[in-house]
Amino acid sequence: MPASRGLAVLVGRDMKHSNPLLDPLAEGAVIAVCALADAAGPDRWSSGAVEDAATALEVLAGALADLSPEAAELLEVVPAAVAALRERVERAPAAAAPSGPAGCGEDPAVLSTGLRRALAGHSLAGHRVHQLGPALLTITLDAAHAQALAVLLAARRELPRQAPAAEDELRWGAGPAETAAASLAVALVAYGPGTYARVLASGHVTAGLTPTATQQVTDALNTRPVSTAPPTRARRRGLGHGWKGIDVGR
After folding, report:
1. Cα angle at 205 between 199 and 211, to 5 degrees?
2. Over the stretch 125-177, which tens digit does the pLDDT of each residue have?
3. CA-based nearest residue to 163, from 172, 150, 151, 175
4. What does pTM read for this prediction?
């Protein structure tokens, strides 16, 4: 199977080509997942089915993360994504299985490309943008750039007057990455529900955004801040009325 070959490259040459105990279980999991995907639809998910499917994702990601440190780093976004999905289902069960980007007519690939360009335009280098399905996009940055992004987003939109979540409040001062994640989580609240920011095991900060929040964050980053300095008047030195508006005081 192509997926098996890919994982073999990832973990090295020590991976066995077959396991008489594990292979049938993994094959059964694939069959079950395919049957679930075929039966699923925008109006067919229940909160219990979403919870069970999310738990399966989390368990499988945890098992695959034991393959190697590289595999663990690739999969460490899954627990955060599952947590965000559970939170969204609790808030609005109908949003558990959207038929497309909520509140946004853009294709997910277009959204992620636009966000990458907006981040690069502010010299937020080293970012990774991943599209985890049509309903969730994640940004991964180091702590310094995550803090810079939080400052940029807070400056471009008035934050709602509410106390930060207990989890975010505890993270302030716990370390650079934790503080950056808390700041970014608070800043993202102004761009729509369903957003979050977490610290990964690597020390990087990852943030999750809905399609609507992604578009709003991109628009905010592409908008130049309005200058509050008073306008300067043109100076005229002994010129007649026919020369109004010409600045000769350069």
Report:
1. 110
2. 888 888 877 788 889 999 999 999 999 999 887 655 444 554 555 555 568 89
3. 172
4. 0.54
